[in-house]
Automatic annotation (TrEMBL), chains B, D:
This is 3-oxoacid CoA-transferase subunit B. It comes from Candidatus Lucifugimonas marina. The keyword Protease does not apply. Pfam families: CoA_trans (PF01144). Coiled coil: none annotated. PANTHER family: ACETATE COA-TRANSFERASE SUBUNIT ALPHA, KETOACID-COENZYME A TRANSFERASE. Belongs to the 3-oxoacid CoA-transferase subunit B family. One of its GO terms (molecular function) is CoA-transferase activity.
Length: 220, 228, 220, 228
């Protein structure tokens, strides 16, 4: 799992680059808006070169992605994910965004399955259990977990409590709960008390490893 | 499908479509605007109308957009642009953001479309021949917002109809669209009575002109007004 | 629905007193730890006289309660809820706390039903659908909504955004999302911007009415 | 059920039960302590052991308790007492609190019990003849914590056994208990091998003394130690 929404804010970009440099293969990625920034600039300020999950398909490390928004509206130039998909090198599982985040949340919250109205009558409903409650039809969707979650927060305390800022929350807090090992990239690490107890966005219980950015890192 | 050209009068431009759509947004509503023409509605709100904008990535209550490409990456909207901090905003994560949507707490969403059917089915996430598409928040919004307004161009590639009897493109949600605002017409999808009502036309366009560019059969319900 | 956890913090005590004084009857209450403070002092500082949901059973206004903890461990003296129950004047529906809060959350989040491992093999499983996922048995539980939610927050802005403090969150944020009409009791109302956007605990969309405490109100 | 008296030696008091239970709490664990004897464990942590306490009402990382009846109503624990603010604490709502529990993120819970069966079934929320009880967070904790320790008195009303073959009281959760610490014994419920293992006895108590006050058949697995 790779956190954030899509775009620079909330994306664990340094961890992604480290994963790419590590060279491990046969990865299945779970993300949200995925791999469209490099070709469209989505969610990146103009003066920076966008970095996105497409890199794992460009490098051949990933064979599958589960996400909600893997390709931009235009096809020229092709994104790395669409390129890999067209060449038969990537399985792309497209999930409605609300279903995707709720499946991840469910995995962390001990809920194996739930019903949602989203997707009924559409291609995403194929093969899924349909069930009526109070006269409306719903789909059953199952929890989605991962071996690793790479997430991004503004800061951590030494216990592992995390604080987020602005719209950088997105998929990060839920992913932190849904992986066997959660690794967080932060700008800063502080002593207990350095995060207001009213502002803890992810509880320390969920955090396994903390990686601190180098001071002055130019990446957003 | 119907294909015609020889328009009787100019079509509205994208900004004018957005401006007309903005007139149907009620003061105080919680609103989610899709990318493209829908997002432009924010520039044309009538005086005295204040909306509570929601973006899927976890903000409620933002307003002014910065110029694209500027701004703080940690203050982004769902379109990947950077709004400014406004007093009374709130930040939250994607779980809460989609609880709000799926729970039916969004009053209105304005979305784009590839096709809308006579019973309000919506297709807006994939062209079949491309074979791959992007859903994002569209299925959640279309299926669960209290009101779904489509803002789009009426036809595509010449005069190919987008308001059709049955969608041939993969669906986003069934029976969800309430209103369609295009460059030549305002159309109500009256699902309860199984009617597609032409409410307004662009200046210089007649009922028959719009019908000729629409596959679904239109009816009038009282006077047909002008979009001007 | 009446928010809080049980105890003084986070309980909309003034709204509860107003509801009692209004005298409306045939109420169904949804709460968590309910009606035990008056006899046990639970969650109230010693120098104050505890006020709890039992008042609606003492007054005869309520006929049913759905909650997780309606009676204290000891029976002497009987709480107002147990008294009403023994006299056949109250239906008491006891739900595991995690299932109760998740059912309320589900109602607000558009999820009509979900599966939980909690309660399998116990009296609360009776009559419920059982289903196995990955070799473990779960119960299906359905969403729980209400006509009104009475909740408590520290402050509201004029838009209706709410800020909570400490452990006073509890059931309040979820209940705010799950009722047709949500009424909040706050200490203070501020202009937009008077609540840090990073600290909004309930979004204004969920709030219908705001009632401000009088300055110097001795109730916690 | 077995009923005996004539104890061979004094039983441990409630504080001593809590003290013995506290020895099994591993440094760095996320722990939820039930009311009564379990809550007293916090007073007896071995040197060098730091726990992350969780309370159902939405706190993680609290520590010292204020005297009962003092303190801030907005800083309460699930037992209705008022802890002090500790650096590194976190507040959250009940949805998140029970996601943590139900999701299996609590390492250990220490709870009280009315009955524990030989296969680890737990009854702790209702005495049938009362006809009404309180569940609170007990079912979620018992069913989902990684480890469930019961801290209780071994017998009730004289020598009525609480560690039984089958629970006769309404269940809290099936096959959930890992260890039982009482005023006369430490007992492991080895569910995998269907054994109830007597690990330790109180000073002056023999295997047979404990067995005589226990309905479930006990076995030894190596030496039986002393609780002292």
């Amino acid at each position: 799992m790779i956190g954030g929404f899509g775009g620079a804010g909330g994306q664990p970009t340094r961890l992604m680059l480290a994963l790419r440099d590590l060279g491990v293969g046969d990865l299945t990625i779970i993300g949200n808006v995925a791999g469209i920034s490099k070709t469209t600039g989505y969610g990146w300020p103009d003066h920076l070169d966008p970095i996105d999950q497409g890199m794992f398909f460009e490098s051949g490390q990933a064979t599958k992605i589960t996400c909600s928004f893997p390709v931009p509206g235009t096809t020229n130039p092709l994104s790395d994910i669409e390129k890999a998909w067209r060449e038969g090198n990537a399985e792309v599982d497209i999930v409605p965004q609300g279903t995707l985040i709720e499946r991840i949340r469910a995995a962390g919250a001990g809920i194996p399955a739930f019903y949602t109205p989203t997707g009924v009558g559409t291609p995403v409903a194929e093969g899924k259990e349909h069930r009526d409650f109070d006269g409306r039809t719903y789909l059953m969707e199952e929890a989605l977990s991962a071996d690793f979650a790479l997430i991004r927060a503004q800061k951590a305390d030494t216990r592992g409590n995390l604080q987020y800022i602005g719209t950088s929350r997105a998929f990060n807090p839920a992913m932190a709960t849904a992986a066997a090992v959660t690794i967080v990239e932060v700008d800063e690490i502080v002593e207990p008390g350095g995060i207001d107890p009213e502002r803890v966005g992810t509880l320390s219980t969920y955090v396994d490893r903390i990686v601190v950015r180098e001071a002055g890192d130019p990446l957003p | 499908m119907t294909t015609l050209s020889n328009d009787p009068a100019p079509r509205l431009d994208r900004a004018a479509i957005a401006k007309r759509a903005a007139r149907d947004l009620v003061d105080g509503s919680t609103v989610n605007l899709g990318i493209g023409i829908p997002a432009m509605c924010a520039d044309f709100l009538p005086d005295g109308v204040e909306l509570l904008y929601h973006a899927e990535n976890g903000i409620l209550g933002f307003k002014e957009l910065s110029a694209p490409g500027e701004g703080d990456p940690n203050l982004m909207d769902a379109g990947g642009k950077f709004p400014k901090l406004v007093p009374g905003m709130a930040f939250f994560d994607s779980v809460e953001s989609f609880s709000l949507i799926r729970g039916g707490h969004i009053d209105v969403t304005v979305l784009g479309a590839l096709q809308v059917s006579r019973n309000g089915d919506l297709s807006n996430w994939m062209i079949p021949k491309r074979g791959i598409g992007s859903i994002g928040g569209a299925m959640d919004l279309a299926a669960n917002a209290k009101k779904v307004i489509i803002a789009m161009e009426h036809n595509v590639r010449g005069d190919l109809a987008k308001i059709v009897d049955e969608c041939t493109f993969p669906l986003t949600a069934r029976a969800c669209v309430d209103e369609v605002i295009t460059d030549i017409a305002v159309i109500e999808i009256d699902r309860k009575n199984d009617r597609v009502i032409l409410r307004e036309t662009a200046p210089g366009w007649s009922f028959d002109d719009v019908q000729a560019r629409t596959e679904a059969r239109l009816v009038a319900d009282g006077d047909v007004g002008s979009m001007a």
